Amino acid sequence: MPTGSILVADDDAAIRTVLNQALSRAGYEVRSCGNAATLWRWVSQGDGDLVITDVVMPDENAFDLLPRIKKVRPELPVIVMSAQNTFMTAIRASEKGAYEYLPKPFDLKELISIVGRALSEPKKPENALRTLGEDADNIPLVGRSPAMQDIYRVLARLMQTDLTVMIAGESGTGKELVARALHDYGKRRNGPFVAINMAAIPRDLIESELFGHEKGAFTGANARSAGRFEQAESGTLFLDEIGDMPMEAQTRLLRVLQQGEYTTVGGRTPIKTDVRIVAATNKDLRILIQQGLFREDLFFRLNVVPLRLPPLRERTEDVPDLARHFFLQAEREGLPRKQIDAAALDRLKRYRWPGNVRELENLIRRLAALYPQEVITGSIIEAELSTPVATNAPEETGQDETLSSSVERHLNTYFGGFGENLPPPGLYHRILKDVEYPLLSAALAATRGNQIKAAELLGLNRNTLRKKIRDLDIQIIRTSR
């Protein structure tokens, strides 16, 4: 049976009663109060083995009380509860030395589990984190849904670590924003944050982009160039769309992560590196591993702390907060002030949001810029969301769709997903790569893996075809007729 004395502080008598009953049934001695003054008196007298407190108290905010508690009793674990449920609430709880943050309402079984873990762990003082500025609430991580609360709590625990993080999520869910939050509020905040999009760089330039090159290393290398690892020294390197990294570059990256050093392209002297790696992908890397397109050992090196960002359709309760946030941003940038009525918000919540938060942000900016009405109504939203976009199927013309029209349709949809923004640079090479792989695969399949026949079919030199098979890592299956 667990033992320990727990101090509960919450000005809501009903919550105190529920907590008293649950903790008592779990075998703990419980004392509760409704104000910070009583809690402080008990703590300063040496009472209690653990504290559970709400943030907002009638006489003092718990975030103001926490530093005093940690000063007189640094080993005392404090669990903070809050109905505010924002990203910055979780960060401030961690910043002030809280053992854990729980958004209201919370699961009592989870609370009992956290209490047991806190009381069983060796007691050690928490390192104080930095105090955030008054503008900290401007951080663009918005949402109070249970899915986002889980993310906030994980991020709060990661802020004072250098653990490698793998962020997975669909395009437009905010993966780079999360990576920036990890950097801006973490221990490397005084260092640089360097982002690189693997899908936007030609294959033959990726190693130079990551590790830099020496003068004369290749044609056009007229001067030494620092790579992203060097630029991110003592800071954070964000590897976006890591699933698009070529296999040869994956091998070099793995070596760097294992050995903590790298050499520039054309260089001979190893260079020590001190960066935190945060990677992101919108693909299922385990499927890529099965297809032979991603190294399993690199995956385990990067996937130390996996973090999945939910698509907006899985947290539609956050849509109103996000819409108001983006309207406020648009107003700060000089666009007219807008309000949005309940019918409009309800229509936004019922939309599927294939482009996720990015699509919502683009819609809000469009509404702020193009509509003269001060209040955005449901009919306006209905008209916007019903506007036909590039169709996902060929038109019923009675004729088969050509490759050219199919590619054009795909590109229209692709560009539409970015709204008023442009896709990342390197589109030409990405499109060629996307077309080349299925073309070569189809030719090899048609010739039953016979490379001589496939080269003849494609009109390529046999050595050129072999090189492309190797570069694209195409799996050849030979069968007999």
Automatic annotation (TrEMBL):
SUPFAM superfamilies: CheY-like (SSF52172), Homeodomain-like (SSF46689), P-loop containing nucleoside triphosphate hydrolases (SSF52540). It is found in: Cytoplasm. The keyword NADP does not apply. One of its GO terms (cellular component) is cytoplasm. It comes from the Bacteria. It holds the Pfam family Response_reg. GO terms for biological process: regulation of DNA-templated transcription; regulation of nitrogen utilization. SMART domains: AAA, REC. Signal peptide: none annotated. GO terms for molecular function: ATP binding; phosphorelay response regulator activity; sequence-specific DNA binding. The keyword Metal-binding does not apply. Residues 141-369 form the Sigma-54 factor interaction domain. The modification 4-aspartylphosphate is found at residue 54. Gene3D superfamilies: 1.10.8.60, 3.40.50.2300, Homeodomain-like, P-loop containing nucleotide triphosphate hydrolases. Its main location: cytoplasm. Keywords: Activator, ATP-binding, Cytoplasm, DNA-binding, Nitrogen fixation, Nucleotide-binding, Phosphoprotein, Repressor, Transcription, Transcription regulation, Two-component regulatory system. Transmembrane segments: none annotated. Residues 5-119 form the Response regulatory domain. PANTHER family: DNA-BINDING TRANSCRIPTIONAL REGULATOR NTRC, TRANSCRIPTIONAL REGULATORY PROTEIN. Member of the two-component regulatory system NtrB/NtrC, which controls expression of the nitrogen-regulated (ntr) genes in response to nitrogen limitation. Phosphorylated NtrC binds directly to DNA and stimulates the formation of open promoter-sigma54-RNA polymerase complexes. This is DNA-binding transcriptional regulator NtrC. It comes from Ancylobacter novellus (strain ATCC 8093 / DSM 506 / JCM 20403 / CCM 1077 / IAM 12100 / NBRC 12443 / NCIMB 10456) (Starkeya novella). The gene is ntrC.
